[in-house]
């Protein structure tokens, strides 16, 4: 049975200050909860409909609570969640290790949770498993971010840090997305390095721009003012993976 205390706890995690205090976050929807169950995250408990729980691969010893769809609807931030919800422990914010020949993304103040989630999902698609983010970037454990990743949050490591301190010690190429850079479709990419994606409205800040070793751009053919940050990330990642 779902207790009032658990309901209160789950709802409190909608706010960042309580996620930080409890070091826990909520995962909503069958797809994301399924990916969570297959990951190395420490899961506190799972709520699910009978249909979901019967079909899921559930670890022994995990607290499982069967609920009705209307109970889930009352707990979820999204109307589409009618199957499962889980609470898991956050992972420590530890520096990521970049292997030789590996690419990583650097996010300079990406504020929109949907954009961040889609960027994480895109990185996962292109085999990029490390993201270094500014401290102002949206919280990966925000429910909208988790939902937009479609489960990719379990495979992509994120490290929040002061980017100026991090980048000044980097010796690999640092590519930055600008309006006046080299054509991303013809740019020769090294085996490994960093790709910086700037803020949705302001782009890459001057403080971070000083560390860019190669400006790149996505050619414009129409009259749109700009590209969505997540779409730009996808185009750049596609070109990084282009056959040499």
UniProtKB/TrEMBL annotation:
GO terms for biological process: methylation; RNA processing. Pfam families: MRM3-like_sub_bind, SpoU_methylase. InterPro entries: Alpha/beta_knot_MTases, MRM3-like_sub_bind, Ribosomal_eL30-like_sf, rRNA_Methyltransferase, SpoU_MeTrfase, tRNA_m1G_MTases_N. It comes from the Bacteria. Keywords: Methyltransferase, Transferase. Residues 5-86 form the MRM3-like substrate binding domain. Residues 103-237 form the tRNA/rRNA methyltransferase SpoU type domain. One of its GO terms (molecular function) is RNA methyltransferase activity. Belongs to the class IV-like SAM-binding methyltransferase superfamily. RNA methyltransferase TrmH family. PANTHER family: RRNA METHYLTRANSFERASE 3, RRNA METHYLTRANSFERASE 3, MITOCHONDRIAL. This is RNA methyltransferase. It comes from Pseudochryseolinea flava.
